[in-house]
Amino acid sequence: MSQGLCAGRRPPRTTPTPPSSPNAGAAPSPPRPTPPPISDPARCRAALLAQRRRRPFSSPPDAAPSPLVPGRRRACSSPTGADLLLPARSPTPAHLIQMSDNMAAKIGEIVQVHNDNPVKRVPIARPSFGREGKQIKLLSNHFTVKLSGIDAVSIKSEDDKVIDGKGIGRKVMDKVLQTYSSELAGKEFAYDGEKCLFTVGPLPQNNFEFTVILEETSSRAAGGSLGHGSPNQGDKKRSKCTHLAKKFVVGISYAAKIPLKSVALALRGSESDHAQDALRVLDIVLRQQQAKRGCLLVRQSFFSDDFRNLVDLTGGVSGCRGLHSSFRTTIGGLSLNMDVSTTMIVTPGPVFDFLLTNQNVRDIRDIDWPRAKKMLKNLRVKAIHNNMEFKISGLSDEPCSRQTFPMKVRNGSSEGETVEITVQEYFKSKQVDLTMPYLPCLDVGKPKRPNYVPIELCHMVSLQRYTKALSSQQRATLVEKSRQKPQERMRVVTDAVKNNRYDDDPILSSCGIKIEKQLTRVDGRVLSAPTLVVGNSEDCIPNRGRWNYNNKVRLFEPVKIERWAIVNFSARCDMSRISRDLINCGRTKGIIIERPFTLVDEDSQSRRCTPVVRVESMFEKVKANLPGPPEFLLCVLPERKNCDLYGPWKKKNLHEMGIITQCIVPSVKMNDQYYTNVLLKINAKLGGMNSKLSLEHRHMIPIVNQTPTLILGMDVSHGSPGRADVPSIAAVVGSRCWPLISRYRASVRTQSPKRTSTGLLQDQSTKKAEADNHFQAYQYMDQGPIPKFTVIIAQKNHHTKLFQENAPDNVPPGTVVDSGIVHPRQYDFYMCAHAGPIGTSRPTHYHVLHDEIGFLPDDVQKLVLSLSYVYQRSTTAISVAAQMGQFMKFEEFAETSSGSGGVPSSSGAVVPELPRLHADVCSSMHN
Prior knowledge:
Family: Belongs to the argonaute family. Ago subfamily.
Organism: Oryza glumipatula
Structural class: alpha+beta
Distance between the termini: 22 Å
Pfam families: ArgoL1 (PF08699), ArgoL2 (PF16488), ArgoN (PF16486), PAZ (PF02170), Piwi (PF02171)
Strand content: 15-25%
Protein name: Piwi domain-containing protein
GO molecular function, one term: RNA binding
Strand order of the largest sheet: 36-35-34-1-37-41-40-39-24-2-38
């Protein structure tokens, strides 16, 4: 989930002699001295606090500071006019350690670096294996696969019609196989649902053209066109429509031969472009098998239509539990990675029930119909009166009782004439009595040819993906109800491999594929937790990834809080007690907290206003009760921290007023541990340090403490799928004061909404580009000798899980695996740095792409583990290096704020800017 770069100083580059000038004889200017590193923590904190100017309690000045969260400087501008983001000025490092997510921000793209002769850097091979740590026997959700070296043939298929509707392509190709099996020599094929299919061995000829007739290819073909603007144009028309069929002309032509033996070469460490193609073929075979069973396919995951797999998330949305399956090349051979997966779907059932729950109303008359129209568009429904499926294109302008359409009279004296009839009257003539004629109809037709069906006769089709953003409550419910204990997850994936009966699949069998039914055994090691230093330079040894500040343990570098206040948005808390308990707890931790200036309660009338108005009203009361701007504000929220007030409150404080703030929610157990956790965050925000590594304190970190080193973390977060209007948010976090690695600055900005995920990072070209962009960006800045780089990608978005072989609990913190299930050639390892008391722990997958420093595997693994213990907001090791946790907090702030203005993207579109942090808080790391 992050990328790390380490660098050692290179020899200085020779500068070409400049052309002669009138001042050629003048003495050259002396070289600019390199400032010494700030190694004293007290000086670091003093420099931080010095940036907070004393000023009137007012809105921000006109000259807004940079949107870089702490310490950014404008070094240059890119050709697009966007500033290059850098950490604050520091001496040129000899080591640059950069940790970023599996696709971090492409620095080369941001500054548009053009290099006609780029240096080709190939991801390094594994130099050796780690040795340190206690041995542990593990199981992994990989299943061993045996494969024979048979060739597969890639074939391109084309159709003369544009296929409209999901699953139609598969029906067409199934019909081709059924009708023309003899022409295809009886060969089965794997179809990807679009334009590619694969066979084992060649077909009798390279080109085919087949004509197939497919009945009931859509709702109109199956149930008949319901008429121009009408529910149906009569029995005669409907009778003809039930027998309508569509003709498809399918062209099949040879594309390429994919040797499956290339997988065997990849398993021996040989890099081959064919290996990924071969794995793709095998994955398509797995997808096709599930498609035939009627499953919803989402990339390499599949979800069956079983109500037992559904979890109600409220709002008409359900979590659907399914399975992920994919083939992986590992050092132990080819394996099938099987894991539990979850996606969101629209809750199946009556449409009016969906609308009630989606809008959280009790009566159908209270529905906001413009909002409902937007929500229902493009969803599929089934009409219960004729069992037909339709796609919703909109709503009628009038209710069923008044919505009319033209219909031809088919009998009587007026036969052949066109009359206007209401939808209600029409269905009554067909012996269907509507109980809710006051509701609008669903329009399931085309823009110029509407088709109306009453809402009460429609049900939501199952397995329709819900791609909109979830609310905070829905996310919390999904996480809570998706948890599985390790033993349960092991049972689910093992049963899935047995029940899917892969050995009976004709294509897999013809490829000679045999899949074991047991989890793969893996050898792991448990690294010792690093020792921490707290107050009075006392050592603190974590136990199972945890430590605490009980028994009057002081913080390493506590702050003093003199000017502060408490604001209360909650109607059910005692602010005097909160103030008293916080001061007393702070005293035991070494934090001197003066009595608050004032306790400000929200007016009862304001609680009925919008969140923005409530925040503005509260600040007016704060100004009236304080003599000047406070150093810090403690905010008591009425509910969860991610309530509607959180975003406006943070924006007002950090963007407009320049005040550091901490939000809390009243809890039943507001004990000493609760206040300690709050104080850890407050101390870090105000420039203090809660703890640091003992090795860091004693300058004993291998390599890092020997040479000036900068550690960077990078990530890009994206909006929900389908939200092209939401920009991506790029964050960069850098260590501040070498040789410390526990203090950071951060930079955040928006960029054009592009998805840069590379899945499981199997693409070799992507890995090369990932490393090359960082070198090019540094060259672009022309900051002197290029430091030595070590580039590490840390990835959380994968499906490998680790289990203890002889225990029901999660793997212990510090577990590392660099054998068995890792890449056969590349330098990667899995690490579970944190303790997992709930659910099943997900290890982080680290890839070392480039290493000029020459870390030993044990050194890299211990450094990454140590960085998981320096996250200042927590008393537990986190699952990734601390830089990842840092920029996640900045992305969270960006997602809860709305920006104005924008910067141009590479496509020319304007990308909204993030709100600029006020100058008085831009150096605080933990806002």
